[in-house]
Amino acid sequence: MRLLGAIAAALALVAAAPATDWTHRVTQTPQGAFVLGNPAAKQRLVEYVSYTCPHCAHFTNEAAATLRQKYVANGSTAIEVRHAVRDPIDFAATLLARCTGPTRFFAVHEKLFATQESWFEAGAKYIDDNREALNKLPQGQQLQMLAKGAGLPAVVGLSEAQANACIANAAAQKPVLAMTTEAWEQRKIAGTPYFLVNGQGIDNTASWAALQPHLKN
Question: Which of 33, 122, 180, 185 could lock onto 85 through a cystine, CB 3.0 to 4.6 A?
Fold first, then answer.
């Protein structure tokens, strides 16, 4: 009887244990993409993004909270972010976001889109005002100056020295460049954002309203 009572008590504890909140779990693919949620989720949503893409910003600002709360938290869906870089400011922003590390990446990812209009405008103005000087610099220094001119280190929470070291890191650049090549040259996506659901490309889904019917909760 005592054994049965112990088993019943253990089962009660298991039943009462809170469900895992998968919004706190971030992993990386072998290619370096960050994945939010249950690595064994039945549904994998892949998003190809560019940080200077206004449609990406609109989608993320509209959909991120719902995706986290209704799809990721319960373990049914994992979200994988792949980079499809479009321009030098985008490249700098991508490198800095990734340098914040897996724990902070998705929060920084969403912040970059939430503040995109201000830092992208600052970056574009910096290019216009300093085009001749920038053209004389090696690419790495150009990216460092662009990041500073756009105010990106402050947006992602890095010091200027940390941002410069991040941008200069060839190993950090490699997966971003590989993902970009895969997106534009191999998969030949039409634009960003672009989505895969369980490996299947979903066309014409730049908005949450268009993508949601393709997802199972």
Answer: 180
Residue 188 within a domain: yes
Mind listing the pLDDT tens digit for each residue in 123-165? 999 999 999 999 999 999 999 999 999 999 999 999 999 999 9
Task: Report the distance separating Cα 176 and Cα 34, nearest Å.
Answer: 11
Closest by CA to 60, choosing from 101, 123, 119, 109, is: 109
Q: Tell me, yes or no, whether 93 lies in a domain.
A: yes
Number of domains the chain contains: 1
Under 8 Å CB-to-CB from 62, ≥6 apart: which residues?
207, 208
Please indicate, yes or no, if residue 42 is contained in any of the structural domains.
Answer: yes
What is the rounded CA–CA span in Å between residue 91 and residue 180?
10
Q: Which amino acid is at 95?
A: L
Which CATH number characterizes residue 105's domain? Answer: 3.40.30.10
| Boundaries of domain holding 180 | 21-214
Cα–Cα distances in Å, from 101 out to 46, 60, 96, 203? 19, 20, 9, 31
Of 209, 204, 210, residue with least CA distance to 189 = 204
Amino acid at 56: C
- Helical axes 139-150 vs 160-168, angle rounded to 10°: 150
Indicate whether 16 belongs to any domain: no
Residue 134's region, left for phi above 0, alpha for psi from -120 to 50, else beta, is alpha
Cis peptide before 193 (omega within 30 of 0): yes
